[in-house]
Write a structure and sequence with these properties.
Helix content: 25-40%
Strand order of the largest sheet: 1-2-3-4-5-7-6
Radius of gyration: 21 Å
Number of helices: 11
Distance between the termini: 61 Å
Order of helices and strands: HEHEEHEHEHEEHEHEEHHHH
Strand content: 15-25%
Shape: globular
Number of domains: 2
Structural class: alpha+beta
Length: about 375
């Protein structure tokens, strides 16, 4: 029986069933699960990876919600049960969870969570080698905050179009079920929200044949110059100034195992403060001299023009692909998608005009 559970779990997370149609039209419906007609042939011999597919994954998380939401500077792991679905079958796995995020633990009605699966047996080589996953949640319960999640998910997908040195993400629809440890407490009403799982940095490093550096006080000029220009231009495109190489803030640093490539490579993440997502709590640093995160400021250092022009060419070549990522996403309403595309158009209006490009980027760079 154990091996069949392993196969069922493969079917869920590899996306061999398609659930995109389930939640595209009315987001406030009760949780739905695919029927057996959505399951196609499965080849267990194929190498499997959670982030190798793009289909929606539906899950249920059972835990003591009051305990999870209790404010603390140092949240501790608590027991939870993760439920996976395939056809009319469900599988439950014991996991551990805790809240994460310094700002959002204090601000959010429901902060993002870390899912620890170190001691969970999945009968799957990939999952059994994982220790934890970060899950981005809805923060607050209004539909506005669910849109923020979907838009930030798309930002990760946009960056995936530009480089493999990026975090892959998987969209989920999670049903949250309160199971109080104190049986005298009345359970809170279950609810369903979108979220997404972020690939672990060790997996990003492994598939790119790199290692993770944890050194602080590095500088942009120490990075691979082509890639540094790419990262800085991407952050400018999405209107994000909330990042720092020196402080390892919203960036991870990778280094190639190949000794002929000594320069490190930055990998950005955490885009909820970007102008393209435009959360209501995002406030720019007052030292930047801007009033809104929607205003772009180029935060890359001044590099030789050849590296910046190379990044410019990549973005110009990828323009159609970037817009297609947004157009093809069925879970965000048309108005929000149009807002995102208009924001990207503002970037491309600068990129496509030599004078604007020189003024805003080549001359707008940081001198040190």
């Amino acid at each position: 029986m154990k091996k069949y559970f392993g196969i069922i779990f493969f079917l869920i997370l590899t996306g061999f069933y398609q659930t995109d149609f389930l939640y595209a039209q009315k987001r406030k419906k009760d949780v739905q699960f695919p029927d057996s007609s959505d399951v196609i042939h499965f080849i267990p011999e194929e190498e499997w990876n959670l982030f190798g597919r793009e289909g929606l994954v539906e899950l249920t998380l059972k835990f003591d919600m009051r305990k999870y939401l209790k404010a603390t500077d140092k949240p501790e792991y608590q027991d939870a049960v993760l439920v996976m679905y395939a056809s009319d079958t469900s599988i439950e796995k014991n996991v551990r969870i805790k809240s994460r995020g310094v700002f959002r633990r204090g601000y959010c009605a429901f902060p993002p969570l870390k899912l620890n699966v170190k001691k969970t047996k999945f009968d799957n080589e990939y999952l059994d080698n994982q220790k934890n996953f970060k899950i981005v949640t809805h923060c607050k319960h209004s539909s506005l905050f669910e849109d923020y999640v979907l838009k930030e998910y798309l930002v990760y997908r946009l960056y995936n179009q530009l480089t493999d040195l990026s975090f892959k993400v998987r969209l989920i629809k999670m049903q949250y079920v309160d199971v109080p440890e104190n049986v005298k407490k009345k359970p809170r009403k279950p609810f369903v929200k979108y979220g997404f799982i972020i690939e672990h940095i060790n997996s990003v490093a492994e598939r790119n044949k790199m290692i993770v550096l944890k050194l602080e006080n590095l500088h942009q000029y120490l990075m691979n110059k082509d890639h540094m220009a790419l990262v800085a231009m991407f952050e400018y495109m999405i209107g994000n100034t909330d990042w720092s190489i020196a402080g390892l803030h919203n960036l991870k640093i990778l280094k190639a195992m190949d000794f002929t490539k000594p320069d490190p490579y930055p990998v950005p993440y955490d885009f909820d403060y970007s102008g393209i997502v435009d959360t209501e709590y995002a406030v720019p640093d007052e030292r930047l001299g801007i009033e809104s995160v929607r205003e772009r400021v180029y935060r890359g250092i001044c590099l030789p023009d050849v590296h910046v022009e190379k990044a410019r060419e990549l973005f110009l070549n990828k323009k159609d692909s970037l817009f297609k990522v947004i157009d093809d996403f069925s879970y965000l309403d048309k108005r929000e998608k149009e807002n995102m595309k208009r924001y990207l158009e503002g970037f491309y209006n600068i990129l496509e005009k030599d004078k604007s490009f020189k003024y805003n980027i080549l001359n707008g760079c940081l001198s040190k």
